[in-house]
Every structure is written in structure tokens, then in C-alpha cells.
Amino acid sequence: MIPLRLIISNFRAIEHADIDLSAVTLAAIAGRNGVGKSSAFTLAPRFALFGDVVDGVSLDDLVRRGTTEMSVTFEFEHQGSVYRAIRTRSTKGKGKSTLELQQRVGSQWESRSAEKIVDTESVIRNLLNLDDETFTASSMILQGQANAFTGATAGKRKEILSQILGLNVYEELQERARQRAASLNIEIEKAKDRMLTLNERLTALPVKEDDLRMAEDQHCVTLEMIAKDEASIKTLEARINDLKIKSERIGLINRDLGTLDDEIASLERERSEQSGRLERAEKILANEATIKTKTAELEQIKQRLAKLEARQPEVERLRRDLAETEADLFRLDEDMLKTSNHILILHQQLAGRETLRQRASEYEQESGRLLSFENKADQWNLLAAELRTIDTQRDREEARLRLEEQRICDKISELMQQEAHIHDSGCLPTCKFQQAAATAVAELPELRRRLAELDRSEFHLLAAVIAEKQVEQQVIGYDPEAHRTCKGRVEELRQAANAYAQLSGKDELYQQLEQQHLDQQVRKTSGEVRRNDLQQQLNDLEAALAPLPDLMSQASDLQRWAKLMDEIGAAREAKQNAEERIVSIGQEIITKRIRWEELDKERTGLVLETLEYDSLQRELKLSQYALQESRRQLAVLAEQIGGIKAVLAALDADRQERERLAAEIEPKALRWTRYQTLIKAFGRDGIPALIIENAVPQLERIANEILGQMSKGKHYVRFETQRELKSRDGVAETLDIMIGDWTAERPYETFSGGEQLRIDYAIRFALAELLAQRAGSKVEWLTIDEGLGSQDAEHRTLVLESIKAVAGRFRRVLVITHIEDALSAFDQVVRFENTDGGIEIHVA
């Protein structure tokens, strides 16, 4: 994995930083304490990839104080493809986190994220084949944690080394073998249990065969009983059908008797109704004279009502005309008020004519002055823009000169320090350090000459042009304050000038409004006269219509007598018809009662003949029940026979299954034995132990190459992978670190702090290279955070030389340090500087 770019926003102390690492190979990270160097190059990548990476610090604590939104974008190259991880955190509400993994395909970014954050983190771990702990231990030496590997317990060291070598895959293989063996064992045990169950079930086979023979014999007997019952039922059904016909005749007679009862009752009701009609007709005919008198009185009232109702629309018309006249008068009053107000305003405007004329003249004078000011302002602003452009060019040239001068001075200082250090080292002339000093001495004069002859002519030329432009500005004589004052005065006088220009047409408008007001007075007087006249007409008409409600009430009371007048003729006819119908109804009732008695006599005879019908019905039901029971027993026997046959078929299938299971158990048992062998081979003492035994010599070789450079060949490192047991015979797996010098070997823990740090670096560099060579994920990035502080000047130089030697084995090597003397050892320096907009990154 190779880092390409970091974009950080509100992460810890960093407000904003965009760090492009694509051109960085070996660089020192410089800047004052607290500016965010460690946060940017150690915590930010880990946070983007793995999330919660700081023990005891919540995600909300990583958000910069005073803000609520934080994000880190980490872009990196891995196995020939470019990816970026974007992780955000918001502290709003209950807090919210997001994680997005993307891959660059052509010029586009395509998502490789899962639905949930935890699943996306799993995708990242599978992509890199690393977790946070192994990633950090192999590619970073954090501040104060140089001994993260060497200071760990022997078991933890071995666990880290196993992860670096990708041995966790054997744990997965062992677990898969265990699962498969367990699955096979379960299948074998299930087959054995199944065979025992089948054997128990097959013991019932002879019993079921005897049950089948008995059930078939009983089935034949039941068929004979059913045939006898069916013959008996046919005889009973014939006798019952004959009696049923007679019972149906009884039902028809009962229905006819009911019909006759209903018809007699209906005739009785009709005779009662006819008696009522006769009585009402006789009453109407008795009051014939009164009805005629009341009907004549109603006709007279209707004539008066017709005359009064004909005048009702006139009332509504008068009310509408009166309402319209009053509305016209109201609108006329409003128009007159508006006209009076307009006349008053015009009178006041015409009274101030002289004052407006004077202010309009003053407006013309000030407008001329404003035009002059604006011409000068245009010339002034043009020169100001030219000055800003030239000033920017001068600043850029000055910055270029300072950067070039600083670069040459830094190189001179580095070569002078290297020359002084090599002279004091006592090395032979053939030593490579002595040869480097000779090269430095030869290069120093050329660098001093370049510093003295640095070309500053462009800078001086730009300064002279700026001075000329400033003189031209002074010649213009532009006064911005006077310009603003004049502009304000023009705006102040503009309204008065416009008002004066409009006065010429307002005299004629004033006269027209006065004439309009007089016309409105005349129209108002005419409207008031019309309103009074309409009100008088309405009052007279309402008085004439006052008797109308009483007449309407009287007409309503007399209306019922008029209806009786129409019924006098019908009453005479109804009386005659009712008398005739009453006689006819009496004769019909006598005839129907005679018929009812005849039917009742016939019904009595039939009832005597059908007395045994119920007993025959009961006997038939008993016979049918017996037949039903026989058929049910027959169905049960058929079902029983079918069930026995199904059981016999199932027992035959069980016998075949028992034979199949016996044939399958043997090959499964052989496969289970093979998986047991694989479980042992994939275990800690199997293939992983052999790989570690083979990798440790390579780790020792790389570590000793680096440690020899740091200690001038004084120390070497050796790893012990086995240790004799004290409590009993045998050896235990371990990973102890033994350090040797010119006298003897002793454990790593017995050395001083500075010596331990050099040993830590040598082993950590070796682990990083081992990961690059052998692990499933190639990390070509090494970050060292503040690892030079505990070294003296001599050993610090050796450590720096070792870092340079290791740098060739990685694509990116970043060293975070606050020691200024160490910066000269690096060709590239990444400087962190605080600005108002965030963090500025300068790569030199």
C-alpha cells in the first residue's frame, strides 16, 4: 500500500489540510508542537481505514473543538489500483458516522462500500489483509511506542509476527476443517441413530401382515350385511310413499282452509269499510247547505288576495331602486372627498414653486461636479488595479528569491556539518564517510558563488515601476471624500428637480379638479331628491298591503269547505254503491263457510288413514341408521386395510434405507479421519510453526544489517523460538529477543534506553520489510514519529543514516521530528504552518 493524498477537515487540532504525497519519497515532517503532525500522518490514516483507533478517546473527542463536523479522506494505491476511504463524524443530536470506500476506475470513483459501516470496515481489512494493530506495528513507529513489538510479551510478539506472515489464514483453514469434521461426525452419528430406529421399526413387519389378513375377512362379512339391510329399506320406502301422498292431500286441504279463512276475514273487513263509506257520505249530504255558503265566501276572499298580491313585485322594485340610489350617494361622497384632498395637495405644491426652482438649478450645478469626480475616479481605479498586479508580481519574485536563498543556505549548512562530523570521526581516507566529506568540500565553493550572484534585477525593476505608478496617482488629484459628498448632494436634490419639472401641467389639473367638484355637488343634490321620493312611494304601498296576512289566514281556514263541495256528487253515488256491496258481501261469506265445512270433513277422514305414517318413518330411520353403520364399518375396514398396506410399504422403504445407510457410513468415517489430520496440520504447532521457523532467520538477517549500521557493528540480534520448560521435560514455543555484543549475549530488556531504541528501530524496520516481502498485503510506507529525541548526536546520525538506508526499501518514508539539526539530513521537508484558513503544507 502506498499513500497518495490526505484531506483533513476539523480533525483534532487541524482545521483543514490537503496533503499531496504523490511526489514524496524520503521526507522529514517539521513544525511546532501541537500543529497536528502526528495527527495527520499517524492517526488520520488509521481513523479513515479502521475507525475507533485511540484507546480512551471517543470519536466525538476527535472532532475539533468549536465545530460539529469532521472528515478524513485517505487516498492510497494498493495492488495496482487507487482507492480512497472517506470517514466522517457529526456531533449533532445523538451523533452520526459515515464510511465510504471507493476505487478509481478510469477518471471516475466507484463505490466499494457495504450497507453498514462495520461491513465496510471488514471489506477494508480483507482488501489490505491487515487490521489496525498489525498495520500500525508494521508500518508506523509511533511516538513513545518504538518498542511496540520488542517490548511486548513473547506470546504477543509471536502473534504479531504470525499476522505479518499472513498465518491467520491457517486459523481459518483449521476452523473450516473442524467445522467439516464436526459436520461429518454429526452425519455419521445421525446415520447410526437412524439405523437403530429402523431396526426397531422392522420388528413389527410380521404382526402387520397378520392384521391385514384379519381385516380383509371382516370386510367380506360386512358386505353381506349391507345387502340385506338395503332390501328391507326398499319395502318400507314403498309403504311410506303411499301414506306420504295422503299426507300431502291433508296439507293441501289445510292450505285451502287457511285460504278460505283469509277470504272470509277479508270480506268482513271490506263490509266494515263499506259501512264507513256509507256513514261518511250520509254526513256530507246532511251538511250540503253549509258547504255551499262557505265556498262562496272563499271565492270573494281569493279575489281580494289576487289584487293585493299583484302589487307585491312593486314593493321589491322600490326597495331595489332605493338601495341603488343610496349606494350611488355613498360612492359620490367618497369621490368628492378624494377630489377635495387632491385639490388641497395641488394647492400646496403650487405654493412652493420658487423654492423648487432654486433647488433644481442647484441640482444642475452639482451634477456637473459629480461627472468630473467620476472621470477622475476611473483613472485612479485603473492605476490602483495595475499597482495591485505589479505588487503581487514583486511579492512572488521576493518569495522565490527567499526560497532559493534558503535552499542554498540549507545545503551549505548540511555540507559543512557533514564535513565537520567526518573530520572528527577518525575514519580512514578510503572510508565511504570520508569520501562523502571530500565531495561536500568540492561542492561548497560553487554553492557560495551561486548565493552571492543570485539575480535580483527583476525584483528591483518591479519596485521602480510601482513607484512610478504611485506618482501618477498623486498627479490625478482625486479626493474620494469630496466625491462621496457630491454624490450624496446630487441624490438629495434629485427629487426636488423632478418635482419642479412636473409643475408645468399641474395648474390645468387644479382647474379641472375644481370644476369636477362642482359637478359632483349637483349630482349629489339630484340623488337626494330621488331617494326621498322612492322612500315615500314605498311607505304608501306597504300601508296598502297591510291586510294581506289576515286574508291569507281566512282563505286557509275556508279551503277545507271548498274540498267538501267537490265531494257532494260523489257522496250520493258512494252511498248507493256501498249499500249494494254490503248485500253482495253477506252472500259470499255464507257460500265460503259452507265450502270450509266440506273440506274440514275430508281432512278428518284422511288423518285417521295416516296414523301409522310416523311409526313407519321411525322404523325406516332405524333401518337406514343400521345400513349407515354397516357402511361406516366397511369404510373403516377399507381405511384400516389401506393403512396396514401403507405401513407395510413404509417398512419396506425402511429396509431399503437401512441398507443404504450401512453402505454410506464407511466412506464418511474415512473422510472424518482425513479432516482430523488437517486440523492438526493447520494448528499452531503444525504448518504455522514451520513458517515462523523459516521466517525468523530472514528477520534476523535484515535486523542485523540495520543494527550493524546503527551500532558500527557492535551489536547483533538473535531470536529464540523455543524455550526449555522448568517444571517438566520438553520445550515451549516462544519468541525471545537476545542481543549480542563483543563480549556475550543477553536479553533485550537488560540494555539502556538509547540502546533499546536503536534495537527497536532495527527490528521494526526489519518487520516492515518482512511484511513488504512476505505478507499478503504489501505496505510500502514507513512513518517514524519523534524517534530521535533520546539519541545523542553521534548515534542520531547513525540512526538517520539507517533510515536513509531503509528508505530504498519503501516507496514512502516519513520522519516526524522537532529537531532542526536532523532536517538537513533529508532531501525533502514537509513543513506544517498554522494559518487563518487551516494548515499550510510546504514541501521543499
TrEMBL record:
Domain Rad50/SbcC-type AAA: 5-202
UniProt xrefs under InterPro entries: P-loop_NTPase, Rad50/SbcC_AAA
Superkingdom, natural source: Bacteria
Stretches assigned to coiled coil: 167-201, 226-366, 524-581
Keywords noted in UniProt: Coiled coil
Binding partners and assembly: Heterodimer of SbcC and SbcD.
Protein name according to UniProt: Nuclease SbcCD subunit C
Organism per entry: Paenibacillus oleatilyticus
